[in-house]
TrEMBL record:
The keyword Signal applies. One of its GO terms (biological process) is carbohydrate metabolic process. The keyword Signal applies. Residues 1-46 form the signal peptide. It holds the Pfam family Polysacc_deac_1. This is Polysaccharide deacetylase.
């Protein structure tokens, strides 16, 4: 705190404006605010993970929408992927290293259709991007420290590069919730954080009519999240009818390696994050 206060002497009895120029006053207030955030215990970042909400970045109204499918752990929903192939619907698949190793047949089908599918990083072992001993999201333990987070991100990326043949540029953490410091670290490693705006299947727990109902709310710019790792769920059935209806409504599916995303619930400086291939 010493560093924050020594450059400027001021009295709390007189209005700040009379004691220093406006710019200096503003700088001081910002530093005091940052100091308060850093010195709060427990730190604020440790209290509330953020679920990042994104839409497709576009200066004008768009008909583009993005379907993203998470492959966390578990099996391969071949009904869902075969449906997408049959109907030429592009999708972005967020796969963990764990899932890739367990599903060689799924990997082979995806690799044969890289014109439709963009494979991106969902981590090595599906560990949420929250930092600190004992921290959990939906009952899943987070990372003990930043070193482990870096390993989760980079080992997931390495597995995709080796097994799919195309290096990923987007990251989606397990549970899609993040500490602000985890977001900063993942972006520093060169990955964009891929959020979403429509949760189509609530972790592959919804029945077919509920998935269809969620998809009825999709509009241009939306990023849909669903799951491709639970073939026993209703996700494939719900998406099959719902996605065809979106096509009939004139919406156009794009992959995340073709667009940038704009966060709708992050501070302003993180609003626009163009994809790395633009
Ligand atoms: Zn997941």
């Amino acid at each position: 705190m010493q560093l924050l206060l020594t450059p400027t002497k001021f009295s709390f009895c007189k209005p700040l404006r009379q004691q220093m120029p406006m710019a200096a006053a503003r700088r001081l207030l910002v530093r005091l605010a940052v100091g308060a955030l850093c010195c709060t215990y427990p730190p604020l970042w440790a209290q509330t993970p953020i679920e990042v909400h994104d839409v497709i970045a576009s200066a004008t109204p768009t008909r583009n929408i993005a379907l993203t499918l998470d492959a966390c752990s578990g099996a391969f929903d071949d009904d869902l992927i075969e449906f997408l192939i049959r109907n030429r619907i592009p999708a972005t698949l967020f796969a963990t290293k764990k899932w890739l190793l367990k599903n060689p047949q799924g990997v082979a089908i995806i690799k044969a259709h890289l014109d439709l599918f963009d494979v991106e990083d969902h981590g090595e072992n599906h560990i949420p991007a929250v930092i600190g001993a004992g921290r959990k999201v939906y009952g899943i333990a987070g990372e003990p420290d930043l070193l482990h987070l870096r390993q989760e991100v980079s080992e997931g990326a390495k597995a995709i590069t080796e097994m799919i043949g195309v290096p990923p540029h987007w990251y989606r953490g397990a549970t899609a919730e993040y500490d602000p410091q985890a977001i900063a670290e993942i972006e520093r490693m060169g990955f964009g954080i891929a959020g979403f705006s429509i949760n189509a299947d609530s972790g592959a727990t919804l029945r077919k009519p509920a998935v269809e109902e969620r998809l009825r709310h999709v509009k241009g710019g939306d990023v849909i999240i669903a799951h491709m790792n639970k073939p026993a769920s209703d996700t494939a059935e719900g998406l099959s009818t719902g996605l065809l209806q979106l096509l009939r409504n004139g919406l156009v599916f794009v992959r995340l390696d073709q667009v940038g995303l704009s966060a709708t619930n992050l501070p302003k400086e993180q609003l626009v994050r163009p994809s790395s291939n633009q």
